[in-house]
Amino acid sequence: MTSSSPEAPAVTLKSLDITERPPLTPTQVAWRRFRRHKMAMAGIVMLVVIVLYVTIGTFFYSEADANLTDLSITLNPPSLEHPFGTDMVGRDLLARTIYGGQISIIIGVLAVVVSIVVGVLVGAVSGFYGGMTDSVLMRFTEAMFNIPSLFLLILLAKMLSGRIPNFTFMGRSFSGSVVVIIAVIGITSWMYLARIVRANVLSLKEQEFITAARCTGASNISIIFFHILPNTTAPIIVSATLLVASAILAEAYVSFLGVGVQPPTPTWGNMLDQAYHHLEREPWMWFFPGMLILLAVLGINFVGDGLRDALDPRALTESE
After folding, report:
1. pLDDT digits (tens, 9 = 90+) for 205-252
2. d(CA 106, CA 244)
3. pTM, full prediction
4. Does residue 143 sit in helix, strand or coil?
5. CB under 8 A, 24+ apart: contacts of 262-267
6. Domains (range + CATH), the chain
7. What is the 3-state secondary structure (H, E, C) of 8-24?
8. Burial group, residue 237, by CB count within 10 angstroms (0-12, 13-18, 19+)
């Protein structure tokens, strides 16, 4: 008698399409956070429009057009021939805002480069070596903080103006005051960044990977530049972005007061200075350069806020 064992019930498992995604890198997480920051994306759009304006505009207007004077069309309001109107000597304001915008942006970026170099070096050396070095450098930084930056900027610009002759670079003529303004803004705006870098260096130099680097025989310079500073890039990037906006405004301040970039080089700032006596009767002279400064500064600040939120190390790790 054969006993038949009951057959095991056939179990059909529905295949699940589960794909494990690899974990996001810090860069990918930061980019996702940045994309979700609506004001930062609006700032990107503003900056792209301004950059396209000052670059593509050069294909339609030459530098000679920006400096061409025609006394027969002085103070003409906006028209089809001159969309932004003309100034008191008949120069086309559209062409001048294009070439003046290039100089304002160049001044902002290069001044921040100077500020970053000085601020990062002071902050890194002060935080890493500590002791008397830290005390001296931080007291000097605090002394610079106590001097009103705008007053110092105006004073140095006035003292150094006229010391550098006009020069030509890549076919364009520049006033020597451009170099002066870049240097002056750079050396009067590094203090805040230096304190940020110092705080990060003080925290990082006690980490285990720095101890491991010391054990391998790495020099102090190598530790600072190849181990500590690469881990401080996030706050440096955020601060540098916001400093560009401050540098553009600083150039506008000193140019409006008549001690900034001098003719023949146009900037948005000295265009406002030239419009000072035409505020009511010829508003187009100040409206267009002023609006471009406003859009540029707003766009940079929006992007800086987005970067600050996206690169914040205290933010929760994004999970999928």
Report:
1. 888 888 888 888 888 899 888 888 888 888 898 888 889 998 998 888
2. 10
3. 0.82
4. helix
5. 262/161, 262/175, 262/177, 263/175, 264/67, 264/166, 264/173, 264/175, 265/103, 265/173, 265/174, 265/175, 265/177, 265/178, 266/66, 266/67, 266/96, 266/99, 266/100, 266/103, 267/100, 267/103, 267/104, 267/107
6. 26-62+88-310 (1.10.3720.10)
7. CCCCCCCCCCCCCCCCC
8. middle
